[in-house]
Design a protein that fits this description.
Length: 332
């Protein structure tokens, strides 16, 4: 009897240790807002906190919009499994106020200010609604949205600082919805002509407040889901021959989950770029699988403005099919 007991205990122990280790970040609010932004950023493993070249989005770092060249409009649509959707829209512009030259005949960087406005829309459709008897009564869907506005300012050739305001809106079911307001801070420091350092803290104060008393009466309740605070630091290096941008980033969430992100962009020929990345290398939990990505973009110039096409493939380890992201960007 004792031998049988210890044998069963041994089998149960093996089953317990074989299960993947839980990562707290997987169950926290706002997961859609941590998937990345657009085809370019997600193809580079979302390692964008220190990149100041190309089309820029303050989602990654509120300070980077002051480095935008020209006006940039970008949009992207994601093909996802399990009836999910993920869409992006962004506008970034740099303004130069006052005189552009100082007494030394060099550019006055302190006059450069950037603005970035963006939307992320996510949701799940075709969810079957059934009654207590299991009979289908219809289809429902959810919609989760992030609206952000970022402003940045260059205080010198080397330093830029920025600030984002985030507004969240989540429609869950019938009259059950929630809103939230959050803030980001970011900075860019130009160490040398080709080397950048980026810092960002995201989702100050972000949370969802839920109240189901109107729907369930006495069985309803009020709850608060706080977003994890993201702290990022990264560097990027730009090679000139050949033209390659490389980036590495460290991101920490409330000191419970820590990620490494890697990204690279290679300019093959004029206006044609190849990109690759590795997102969510979880150094706090080796059971958490990273997300490799690969993408490309092509920009066609038309009388002073350009239209670009972006494509990104992302491996998703826990679904039946991988992500495909198609984007269009316009430079004015």
């Amino acid at each position: 009897m004792n031998k049988s007991f210890f044998f069963i205990l041994l089998l149960v122990s093996f089953q317990i240790f074989a299960q993947p280790k839980f990562s707290e970040i997987s169950s926290q609010a706002g997961s859609f807002s941590r998937m990345g932004f657009g085809a370019r950023g997600m193809s580079m493993g979302n390692a964008m906190v220190a990149i100041t070249y190309g089309d820029l989005v303050s989602y990654y770092n509120p300070a980077i919009s002051a480095f935008q060249t020209g006006n940039s409009i970008s949009t992207a649509y994601s093909f996802l499994s399990l009836d999910r959707n993920l869409n992006f829209l962004n506008y970034t512009r740099r303004f130069i106020f006052g005189a552009r030259k100082d007494d030394n005949k060099s550019e006055d960087y302190s006059n450069m200010t950037g603005i970035s406005i963006g939307i992320i829309n996510a949701g799940v459709s075709d969810i079957e609604e059934r009654d207590n008897q299991g009979i289908k009564t219809g289809d429902i869907s959810t919609s989760e949205n992030l609206f952000f506005v970022g402003i940045s300012r260059r205080f010198s050739k080397a330093l830029a600082i920025g600030f984002n305001v985030r507004f969240y809106y989540y429609h869950l079911y019938e009259e059950i919805s929630s809103t939230g307001l959050g803030f980001d801070l970011g900075a860019i420091y130009i160490i040398s002509e080709n080397l950048n350092l980026g810092l960002a803290i995201s989702d100050f104060n972000s949370e969802y407040k839920w109240d189901t008393n109107d729907l369930y009466g006495q069985e309803g309740r009020s709850t608060v889901d706080e977003f994890p605070l993201s702290k990022k630091i990264g560097i990027s290096y730009r090679f000139t021959e050949p033209e390659i941008i490389t980036a590495i980033e460290f991101e920490s969430f409330n000191n419970t989950t820590n990620f490494i992100k890697l990204g690279v962009e290679y300019k093959i020929i004029d206006q044609l770029f190849l990109r690759g990345g590795l997102d969510k290398i979880n150094i706090s939990n080796s059971d958490f699988l990273p997300k490799p990505s690969l993408g490309f973009s092509y920009l066609q110039n038309l009388d002073g403005w350009g239209i670009g096409f972006d494509y990104t493939f992302i491996f998703e380890p826990y679904t039946i099919q991988d992500q495909h992201i198609i984007g269009v960007n316009i430079k004015l």
